[in-house]
Amino acid sequence: MDRIPILKLGPCLIVSIQDDMQDQTALRLQDDLTNRIEQTGAKGVLIDISALDLVDSFVGRMIANISAMAQLLNASTVVVGMRPAVAITLVELGLSLPGVRTALNVERGMALLNASIEAEASNAEHPAE
Amino acid sequence: MPNILRSETQDMRTEHDVVMGRQKVRALCNELKFSIVDQTKMVTAASELARNTLIHGGGGSMRCELLQEGIRSGLRVVFEDTGPGIANLELAMMDGWTSGGGLGKGLPGSKRLVNDFDLQSTPGQGTRVSITRWK
């Protein structure tokens, strides 16, 4: 079965989905990512879907699940690179992915993650402020 | 009634078939020169229905038909299975209703993504869903 590689960069995990996935591959990514968050103590997860020309309800649910699971493990998720046609189709399908943070590209996504990690760190240092 | 210019059939029995089915629909959309948005909508609808055929129908088949009606051309994709069928079609077409662990977006969502949508099901005998998108 295919496996999507997960890269670690500082406090973040990075996933780039390149292929038209089988459902099992998507489920496995969900498992692998949550395990890696636990092992590494990662604070951020970036999922790049710029290569995906289709996000159906299954993949949409996987994205929403990963975001929710990561949050329970104290990590923020950002989905980057969604194609405009995919966004239009997802909304018409009835999936607007509430609660999932997005950014236009990897660069902006990393900036968003780093900002939220820093904000959390400074809150921890000065809890009263 | 539109003319069927060409027809291609594919089994829908494994997850790999679902992926292959998506790719076939995409290739045909390309051939018909659908816009990127129309293409994405059609392939997404086909993906939802292919998964339904596999998971709820216990496997079946997909048939793609290139259509010509007057000056317009289109693509019809028909999914057929001989599974348990759908007991309550009205309920199945409701947003958010699901018989399994899904989101309940598959059928109503697919309908919104295409021009023509036809669902026929007989409990105990199977289900046939047909979607068409015109250029």
Describe the structure concisely for a colleague:
With 129 residues, chain A is α/β, with parallel strands linked by helices. In chain A, 50% of the residues lie in helices and 17% in strands. In chain A, strands 1-2-3-4-5 form a five-stranded mixed beta sheet, sandwiched between helices.
Structure overview:
The complex is a heterodimer of chains A (129) and B (135). Chain A has 129 residues and is of the alpha/beta class. Chain A has one domain: STAS domain (Transcription Regulator spoIIAA). Chain A has helices at 23-40, 57-72, 84-93, 106-125, and strands at residues 6-9, 12-16, 44-48, 76-80, 101-103. In chain A, strands 1-2-3-4-5 form a 5-stranded mixed β-sheet, sandwiched between helices. Chain A is globular. The mean pLDDT of chain A is 93. A 5-stranded antiparallel β-sheet of chain B has the order 1-2-3-5-4, covered by helices on one side. In chain B, a hairpin with a 2-residue loop joins strand 2 (60-69) and strand 3. In chain B, helix 1 (15-31) packs antiparallel against helix 2 (36-55) and helix 2 (36-55) packs antiparallel against helix 4. The mean pLDDT of chain B is 93. The longest helix of chain B is centred in the middle third of the chain and has 20 residues, at 36-55. Chain B is an alpha+beta fold. Chain B has a single domain, classed as Histidine kinase-like ATPase, C-terminal domain (Heat Shock Protein 90, 2-Layer Sandwich), CATH 3.30.565. Classes of the chains: A alpha/beta (129), B alpha+beta (135). Chains A and B meet through helix 2 and helix 3 of A and helix 1, helix 2 and helix 4 of B.
